[in-house]
Amino acid sequence: MFRNLTPVVRALLFANFIVYGLQWLTNGQLEHAFALWPLGPVGCADCYPFEPWQLVTYAFLHSQLTIWHLAGNMFALLIFGPAVERVLGAQRFALYYFACVVGAALTQLWVAHSLYPEPYATEGASGGIFGILLFYGMTFPHRQVLLIFPPIPMPAWLFVTLYGILELCLGVFGTSQGVAHFAHLGGMATGYLLILYWRRRYRQRP
Fold first, then answer.
1. Among 77, 116, 124, 182, which one has the highest count of C-beta atoms within 10 angstroms of its own C-beta?
2. Is 153 helix (H, G, I), strand (E, B) or coil?
3. pTM, full prediction
4. How many structural domains are present in the chain?
5. Cα–Cα distance between 49 and 81 in angstroms, integer?
């Protein structure tokens, strides 16, 4: 599995694990400047102002409360990322991934500002990962995906569709604080728009 890693996926894996180690070494101080903080005035003593670089840097931070936040995202990147990078190529894959990361961040900023008055930081690579899942499901719709729990095989298109519906339901009816469900959907939506743009450009080529 690791011998088949593509360059950008490998770099993202290393970067995320290194940053997670730095989070522990600095006792969480990286979150002050590099997590995604809401727009507007700082409303609490433990909150920090929004800065433009946070639209990207938040995606390299993960919750220190549990290793599963990082492990889940990196496992999905390891499983689905190489196939997507081989289709897009390294440069376009990197562009796609970070476009989804920024799209997820902008979605989270809008949702947090509109619906959740209590400010909190957002962190994690999930926006980019959900964009990768969408691309995988659209490009390899009939490949079988085996869920870990429950261990049920299903085609990739169905897996991605059900996952997107689940995130929408959790965002609308559940609690979004602590889990940025709408950011996940923002990453998928950004990926979908970029895929449509690339397809349109490809069709217009002479």
1. 124
2. strand
3. 0.89
4. 1
5. 32
Nearest alpha carbon to residue 147 among 85, 82, 75, 87: 75
Backbone angles phi, psi at 44, to 5 degrees: -150, 160
CB 59 within 8 A of CB 70: no
Q: Is 60 helix (H, G, I), strand (E, B) or coil?
A: helix
The length of the chain is 206
Residue 189: is its pLDDT beyond 70? yes
Residue 49 DSSP symbol: -
Cross-strand pairs, 144: 155
Q: What is the CATH number of the domain that holds 116?
A: 1.20.1540.10
Please give the backbone phi and psi of residue 197, each rounded to the nearest 5 degrees, phi first: -65, -45
Residue 151: cis peptide before it, omega within 30 degrees of 0: no
Pairing outcome for strands 153-155 and 144-146: antiparallel
Note the pLDDT tens digit of each residue in 13-29: 999 999 999 998 988 78
Cα→Cα distances 5→37, 63, 147, 198, Å = 33, 25, 21, 25
Q: Token pair for residue 111? A: 């949702």
